Amino acid sequence: MKLSMIYMASGFGRRFGSNKLLASLGGRPLYMYGLTALAEAAVLLQAEGTECQLITVSQYAEILEAARLLPLTGLTVENPYSEEGIAASIRLGTAAAWEDASAFLYFVADQPYTEAAVIAVFASSFLKSGKTIGCTASNGRRGSPTAFSACYRQNLMGLKGDKGGRQIRESRPDEIWIMETKADQLWDIDRAEDLDADKMKKTQTEAGYKGKRRRKMHKKDGKKQEEGMEKETLRQSAGSRSPAFGGGHSFFLRICKNLSVRRGRTGISAVCHLLFR
């Protein structure tokens, strides 16, 4: 299986009041959380035998440059049509994807709490589901990432406006596979006050979420799952060459292992901490 993973980071953040993707959250720019999670998910998926290609679509030079610096990150595509809405990012990312990709995965840049392990499980399960459209959801609320089989390439290339892939999903409801996940995995940053942890917790609770405590518990479980998958990645990658990212893959993973021991971090997170702390 070959999966093209497309990171869409071209939004204006009008309700936020400024460019939210460059806003600081926990000492890091907001966009870095999703970019890092997607890169880590690619490593986890490759351990299972799925080739992964990462494509970052953005109108912002800082984001494109950061994507080029991250280990295991692939193509970057400048988006001159961002005023149009999310459909422009989908079209550009799909056009840059492998011609022989089995499927396309799309992920937005304003969901900082979506974990790499969740993205990897979603992608792996979708590819095995037998369905042609996949999305995540929690209590009926759908979110990102989403996925489409390669048979929809032309449909995706023809999208217009700000509805995105919803236009395709609505026309083919029988083809949709849904992965239920915890609500915090789909929490997005929409307004400036969402960056305030206390206010965010209050908003989540009012919406029926369990808030910060549940988020921490899930992160702990996700970390255990991710560490287990990463150990398998290291074992399988030792001395090998990655078909998707080139001969430096196993060498990079060994560096990651050393960094994780020294800094208490795992995989790509350790390198990202050094690059963007």
Helix content: 40-55%
CATH class: Alpha Beta
User: Could you please say which CATH topology applies here?
Assistant: Spore Coat Polysaccharide Biosynthesis Protein SpsA, Chain A
| Chain-averaged pLDDT | 77
CATH architectural arrangement: Alpha-Beta Complex
Helices and strands: which structural class?
A: alpha/beta
State the domain count. Answer: 1
Major β-sheet profile: 7 strands, mixed
What is the fourth-level CATH superfamily? Spore Coat Polysaccharide Biosynthesis Protein SpsA, Chain A
Strand content: 15-25%
Termini Cα gap: 35 Å
| Helix and strand pattern | EEEHEHEHEHEEHHEHHHH
Could you give the order of strands across the largest sheet?
A: 5-4-1-6-8-7-9
Oligomeric form of this entry?
Answer: single chain
Number of strands: 9
Mind explaining what this structure looks like?
This protein has 277 residues and is of the alpha/beta class. The protein has one domain: Spore Coat Polysaccharide Biosynthesis Protein SpsA, Chain A (Alpha-Beta Complex), CATH 3.90.550.10. The protein has 10 helices and 9 strands. Helix 1 packs across helix 4, helix 1 packs across helix 8 and helix 9 packs across helix 10.
Provide a brief overview of the structure.
With 277 residues, the protein is an alpha/beta fold. 45% of the residues lie in helices and 18% in strands. It has one domain (2-276): Spore Coat Polysaccharide Biosynthesis Protein SpsA, Chain A (Alpha-Beta Complex), CATH 3.90.550.
